Amino acid sequence: MNQMLQDPQTEASEVAQPPVPQDPVREHPRFAKPQRVAFVQACWHRDVVEEARIAFMKEAEARHLTHVDVFEVPGSFEIPLHAQLLAKTRRYTAIVAAGLVVDGGIYRHEFVADTVIKALMDVQLRTEVPVFSAVLTPQQFHETEVHYDFFRRHFAIKGVEVAAACAETLHGLERLRGQVAAGIVG
């Protein structure tokens, strides 16, 4: 048995402290079949929105979503049409949308954001391909470095969250479809 001998004259603050245990890396469940995801990103405020994509890609890989194709569109308003066309190909098991909707007039950007979200829901229900949204509309957005930094961090968080939601939904659908095929759920 190894014992650490301590010089009685050594002060407690000088004694090497054991390392703080890190949270173990959580092992996420694997998919029965490979999943292919389309990530549709608006280019408006790209430096902010791309933080969601970067974080999504990292978290998606950790969750065994390794086939992700990225598509860029000019703005959030163009996302639903791309999502619909991608869903209709049947090549993708899920579609993720990311965009930042800002405008000087409160009614306009709220209208755009609401329209985009409703259209994405319609795509999902019409095609039975799940569509996830990281299309965000801040109440107040000022083109200052402080706001840009805040929203970059916020989009990174949303990227992780949307990857988790995507993976968990695809696992749930995989189980449900297996149960339907086995006649357990009818």
Please tell me about this protein's structure.
Residues 1-12 have a biased composition (Polar residues). This is 6,7-dimethyl-8-ribityllumazine synthase. Its EC number is 2.5.1.78. It is a single chain. The chain has 186 residues and is α/β, with parallel strands linked by helices. It has a single domain (33-181), classed as Lumazine/riboflavin synthase (Rossmann fold), CATH 3.40.50.960. Helices cover 46% and strands 15% of the residues. It has helices at residues 46-62, 79-88, 106-127, 145-181; strands at 36-42, 67-73, 94-100, 131-136. It has a 4-stranded parallel sheet with strand order 2-1-3-4, with helices on both faces. Strand 3, helix 3 (106-127) and strand 4 form a beta-alpha-beta unit. Helix 1 packs parallel to helix 4 (145-181) and helix 2 (79-88) runs parallel beside helix 3 (106-127). The relative contact order is 0.17.
What are the key terms here?
globular, disordered N terminus, single chain, 186 residues, Rossmann fold, riboflavin biosynthesis, 4 strands, 15% strand, transferase
